[in-house]
Amino acid sequence: MRKLSCRSCGAELDGGQLDRRLAIITCSHCGAIFDLARRGGGGVNGAASTAEDTSDRAGEPQVPRGGDTPERAPVAMPSHFRVERDGGRLAVRWRWFQWSDIFLLFFAIAWDAFLVGFYAMMSLANDAPGPMKIIMYVFPLAHVAVGVGITYRALAGLLNTTTLVVEERTLSVRHFPLPWWPAPKIPVDSLEQLYATKKIKHGKNTATVTYELRAVTREHHGRLLLAGLQSLDQALWLEQEIELLLNIRDRPVAGEVKGDDVHV
Asked: pTM for the full model?
């Protein structure tokens, strides 16, 4: 039986992913789609043109050929990144600060001041029955939690710096001075691919767009490295530089964001 391997990632193609009606097969590993009806023709969805016949090399590991995946144009370094390179070590630092964080801080102060005033009034009210007074103390606790969260986020935006370090053995992320999530520490030899994704949060009348940097490990587990990046160029530049340093070949990942709308 003839074996086919994915020319995008080198994995063996699963016959269960074959669509005989359309004569296409999908790689279950990286999501690339191949047109079997056009041997040597153009690719589908940016993938390689055909699957590679490996019947004469059964049992050997299939190494993807260079040039099968179109190379992405280099991404320029974001202006607010501070980069240190020392041999095989890469350290990237950037501040969180945006002018909207000042507005958020004033909003948090107003929110918290209202709650402080409310509890001050309740402590001075002696005419309320005992059970009712307890209810009035407990009822605003959800608002207190929201106030704490908003205040913490505002202070983090004003004060925090994120540092991403890639060293000989580990990739680590640290947020300082206020702890934040995610802050992973991952062995670099477990990383198979990095990619960027887009997150959209819909408000009442607006939508907020942020970006994430994610990784696929050799065990095919997804790991979130960074969240809340304000522009796509931040995620793509970090992906580009980390993959270059670790000699990771850039491959397509289902759900990733491409660099078509990068603005520096």
From this structure: 0.67
